[in-house]
Design brief:
alpha/beta; 14 strands
Length: 294
Amino acid sequence: MIVIGGSTSRDLAKELAVKLDCKCILASSTRFPDGECYTRLEGESLHDDVVIVQNTYPDTSIIEMFLIQDAAKRMGAKSITLVIPYFGYARQDRIFKPGEPESAKVMAKHLGMICNRVITIDIHKETVLKNFKCPAKDLKASGAIAEYFADKGIDVVLAPDFGAADRAKDIGERMKLPYDHLEKVRLSGTEVKIAPARMDCNGKNVLIVDDIIATGGTILAATTQLKAAGATSVSVVCTHGVFTGDAIRRLTGNQIDSLLCCNTLESEVSNISVAGTVADELRKGKKKGLFGKN
């Protein structure tokens, strides 16, 4: 097996290769003066099962993924598995207004043209995977997150809203801790209270868990109110730290005691690795004889 790391996921690709005890190739990707992508893989041939690790975010990374796939196929890859740590466009999985594209379906259709299987991490909606023509599986970062925080003195796990309640439940059960979700209660036309639906967090070390954090506005507001309600500390973790603008600075410079994310998107706070989760899945596939089949 050979692991190929695209420009968005070099560290994750290298760590994955170490865990699998296999060769790692980092794609050499640059930009021409007009902005077009140039990608090259070192070596003469790839007569082995290939695992490409690359995000489909931002937009430029999608083109790079297409080029790496083509290069791997031309170099004789026996099979191609795409590991997409952060699947961009997964949130546009249906038509909301006339004239819109079904973006997630478009991405799946084109990404699946030159591959044998696809692995994603905490994709926003798993129904997107049905659009691939090849086998596709979403892995959960809950195990890696729970393991990281196991000895950090957390008392309760919270989801930022009801939609993420299952995530808090999964991590809470893995850590053998109580879990809950936050609810917004409108007090007036201008005032909103954010508080746990059932649990009293006074004197507790709280862990807020989410799949994606972009601006972090809701998380910041929730943290402020949890601290006002007596929470001893508030740690925040997500799988995908998109962190638009100066989100990291705003979040770490406020009442949040700890801000972390997984290395699906590499940043200064991506200290929780999903490499072990991906490696375990690839080993299972190899035992089942899924590799080497086109």
